Structures are given as C-alpha cells and as structure tokens.
Amino acid sequence: MSNKKWIYCLIILIAIFCNSLLSQVRLPRIISDGMVIQRDSKVKIWGWASPEEKIVIIFNNKSYNTKADKNGQWKVFLDKMKAGGPYEMVIKSKNEITIKDILIGDVWLCSGQSNMELPIKRVRPIYENEIKESTNNFIRQFIVPQKYDFNEQKADIEKGNWKSSNPENVLDFSAVGYFFANELFKKNGVPIGLINASLGGSPIESWISEDALKKFPSAYEELQKFKDNNLINEIESKDKKRIDEWYGKLWQNDEGYKDTQNPWYSPSLNDSDWLSIQIPGYWNKTELNGFNGCVWFRKEISIPKNMENKPAKLILGRIVDADSTFINGKFIGYTSYQYPPRWYSIPPNVLKEGKNIITVRLISNIGNGGFVPDKQYILFSDNDTIDLKGEWKYKIGSKMEPLAGPTFIRWKPAGLFNAMISPLLNYNIKGVIWYQGESNAGKYEEYLDLFKTMVIDWRKKWNIGNFPFLYVQLPNFGDKQSEPKDEYWAFFRETQLKSLSIPNTGMAITIDLGEWNDIHPLNKKDVGKRLALIAQKVAYNSKNIVHTGPIYKSMTIKNNKVIITF
Q1: What are the pLDDT digits (tens) for 223-282?
Q2: Pairing, β 322-327 against β 354-364
Q3: What b/e sequence results for 250-268 when a residue is b if at least 16 CB atoms lie within 10 Å of its CB, and e otherwise?
Q4: CA dihedral sign, ordered 479, 484, 486, 488
Q5: Model-level pTM?
Q6: In contact, 320 and 364? CB cutoff 8 Å
Q7: Distance CA 86, CA 68 (A)
Q8: pLDDT digits (tens, 9 = 90+) for 463-495
Q9: Which among 311, 305, 312, 351 has a CA at the least distance from the CA of 328?
Q10: How far is CA 427 from CA 72, 281, 499, in A?
C-alpha cells in the first residue's frame, strides 16, 4: 500500500475515533456518585451527546428513553419518588455510565457570603464533639467552585464531588449548612443534600442574573463594563504589581530580618530597648496610631515543668491584619488576613520549663492594626493555661504607606450567578438558605428591592414553583453605644424584616448570636438550628411549632400608655 493510502486510512481511523469520543454521553458535574436528588418531585436528569443520539436511563427498576436534540442536548424527568437509597443509575448510549450511591431526600442550596461559606474547620475548637459525632451517610454536601463569568450563563461547573458527612469531610462543610442539615435529619429522618454555592464578601448584585439587573442601572452598567476581559486583565495586572511591590519593599526594609544571625524572633535577642504596649487592643490610642507596615511584638512567659516538651495550643484572638508567630524561635503559624481566629498548635519539644519567648510579626496594610479586644489570648496544655493579656514589648520593623486592597472583580454584578447558580438551575431543590448582607448593609435602602428581585429571579429560572427561601437576619455587630444612634446595621435588619413580605420566606433572628468585635461570629450551630426550625414551619408545614419570636405588628397610645401589639 502506498504512503498516500496509509495516510488516508489513518485520517479515517482518527476521524472515527474522534467521532466516537464526541458522541459519548456526558453528564453535568453535579449528577455524579453520591448525589442526593429531590424526593416527591419530577427530577430532571440531563446532559449532552451527539445530535439525535438515543439514550436510556435505568433507575429504581424503571427505564426512561430519550434522544438528544440537534444541538446534542437531552433530558428526562424521573417519576416522583419517596425518600430512600442508596441506589444506582445506569445511563446507556454508545457508552455506558453508572452513577453509584444515590440518595433520594431533600436538597437545599446554601448561598450567600462568608458567614455561609465559613467551614466547620474555621470553628473547629468549639465543635470538637460535634465533629467526632458527625458520621452520617445521609447528610452530604457538594461544593460549587468559586468562579465568576460576566459574558454567559454557564451550563456546567468545572469540578466538584458529593461528600458524605464524617469527621474528615465535615471540616469542609458550611458550618451553618451542616448544623441546619443535622437538625432536619434528626427531625425528619430524610437524607439531606447541601449544595454549597457561596463566596465571602459577595454583594447581592453578584448573585442576580443580567436580565433581572436591568432595573438597577448602576449595577447593570457595571456588568457591561466588566464583560471586557482586557479590562479585567489590566486591573488584575496593576493590582498584582502594586501589591507585590508593597510587600517586596516591606520585606526588604524589615529591620527584624536584617541580622540573619539574630532575627527578632530569636529567643536570645536583647529587647531591652523595645517599647511597651498593652495587648489586646487596637493601636489607634497608642504611639502607633496611623501606622502601617510591620511591627514586631514579644512577650516573655514562664512555663511550669509539667508543660515542658508537651504539645500545646496558642490562641491569639484575632489580629489585624496578618501575622507570623514564633515561640522560642520556632515558627508556629501564619495567617494572611484579619478575619480568621488565630488558633495555633504548638508541637512537642518547643516549650521548656522557665523562660519562653512568644514573638508576633504583625503586618498592618491600611487603617489601624492591632490585637482585637475582648477575645481569648492564652497558651494552654491539658489543664494548664497561661494568660497572655497585658504588657508586651514592641518595635517597628518597617514603616509603609497604606496599601489599598485589590479590586475584587469576582464580586461584580451577575458574575457569580452566571458561574455558580446558572449550572444548578436544572437540579431540583427543596429550597434555599441564605446568609448574606454584610457587604450591602451600607446601602440598606435598596436591599429590599434587590433581595426581592433575586428571590423572584431564582424561582422563575428554577421553574419549580415558589420554593422556600430562608435567610439569616444579621446579628449584633459593632461597638456598644451608650445612647441610641442611627446605625446602618440596624436599618439593614429592618429591611430584612420587611423582606418577609415575599411569599414563602422565613427569617432566622440572630441578634443575640453575634460578637460585637467580629463580623464572623463563631456560633454557627444555633444559626443552623434556627434556620431548621423555620424550615419545619415554612418548608415542611409542621403544625403547632413556635418557629420564631414575637414580631411587632402595631402600637397605639392610650392615656399615658403605649400599647404594643405583636
């Protein structure tokens, strides 16, 4: 056979092979092993194949036949089914796919910003017992990758897996979502699937579709602006250059690292010329007021013999903004931004009897840095605890100009809807739990309209009716005031109260669960429990259940009395 014929045959073989690959049935990422599908509803199973390709789905002793359309898209609707499982689903075409370990139960979308995203591992020290007891194959979570897109509504997500609850997996569960699911399962005994589509710092505009945003001109115009990928690349490049240069200069000028033989974290360093400061506290009322850059802090503590060489824990409350922490010259931990609690593990053979030195290198980017007050600052092992509050020594390592943060492009309007919500719209859900608002609290006047628009938009696009939409009212946060004062968080909470006018919604009140000095309060268990209580009323129609506290209705003045009706 001539060379030309060989080449011709090879081309044909390659074409046949490529066509075979292209014609294979493909499923969206969320339809995968371990999935939870919604009970008592006509569940849609969908995917892609070659045009006109015939597909058979076998599930729960029934067969369903369909055919891909001219664009290669296909779908079937399963009959309504009661809770149960695990089951297997087989999808047959030119290829065959088996989906294993499927449960039928209730699927809840968990969405919003950081207080919904916040995983159990962030609050682990206060929920160790709950983590140990978390093994439950009937509670599962799927984490949607945190992506944005301003130009199109995505049909699928890049990655993700269903994971059942156990002491390892649960660390990545939304803390609010897990405690919500756990309460529902204890009450109803029905499998619970959580789809976690949340992103810290995200304003509500980022979760609303483009067509629904048209009634908000400024947000809609901003979306059009960020459809330009060249603009995004330019902004990101400039931000990276500016931030890299700032940190480069900070490190270069840091006096604490210049003497490589005796850096400032060295336990043998002579710090007799360092100044004193009281910790905790912000430094706006100290000589460091208005300072940005790097400051080193040192504290000498005395360790009893029974703590020597033992593993221990170091709790340094919260630090604004970043810290690197050392004990006796050994690196203990690092946190790059202000919000996470500083819970560091001290390995064995670090602590010694007698004198020990704790060193914290603190970086303040902008505003006033410091150690957040009214938090724990302790070192402990077993039953021994050492209080770290009080006098510390400090010295400036490197003084810098304030560093403005990056442009958070992923928070821009519609981007998260397109990439994180749109791919889910075919997947039947029981309802939504929503914890968001901190990023919009300063513009509380427009939030009611935005929130209502989003709820209506999601319900319309899911096309499964007015599913329950349960949300968390923002908790107490901010400095305590001795006199009444206009406070935008209070006005925002009032806006959230008015949102109950939207049909089939419920609001978890958390005014008592917050922390005045922390926008991420640690108590996520009670938030989840309260959402579950509201779900029993709104989503499950439980009778004779008190699902919320009294809500103000009206007032009248009679003689010298104010009569309030709830």
Answers
A1: 999 999 999 999 999 999 999 999 999 999 999 999 999 999 999 999 999 999 999 999
A2: antiparallel
A3: beeebebbeeeeebbbbbe
A4: positive
A5: 0.92
A6: yes
A7: 28
A8: 999 999 999 999 999 887 777 777 889 999 999
A9: 351
A10: 19, 48, 26
